Amino acid sequence: MKKDTIDELFIELQDKMDYAEPTTGHQQRFLEKLNESKGVATLAPKKKNPWMLFLSVAASIAILLSVGIFQLNTASSIEDQVAEISPEASKTQFYFANLIEEQINELNSEKSPETEKIIKDTMTQLKKLQLNYTKMEQDLLNGGNSKLILSAMITNFQTRIDLLSEVMIQIENIKSIKKSNDENYTI
Question: Residue 107 and residue 101: Cα distance in Å, rounded?
């Protein structure tokens, strides 16, 4: 059988192959010779344009701002959409929201070391009730049973007001107990 010609070639060149690394500056000398013969530009690292970094940061900020503005517009439009479905619900919401805000301010004015935990728990419960109310608004906008949802929304407001009233009563009880203990304490 005849051997492959490639195998014969490697056998012949086995002792003649150069395994040494090129000297320093070899690549640069090679590129210079290549440029002289063909007029090709040197292989130099590309310079980064400082404006590109600035423009990319500015574009990112612009996108974030537009998303934030869109979210704010969506929040106010939900209230507008609820007002379109039921103007009475909008008026009721305004009335109850003001009443609840006044009670929350009154509750926060009663804050003391003795009442801090109960106030914190109350605020957590109010946040949960607010989240439920927001879900009900979405259900109303999505075309649910409007009478049932409006009734649940009013009940949610009443629950918040009852919760705040109950907590104010408990705070008054805590204050009266503290006051009676202070009066009974003698030096």
Answer: 10
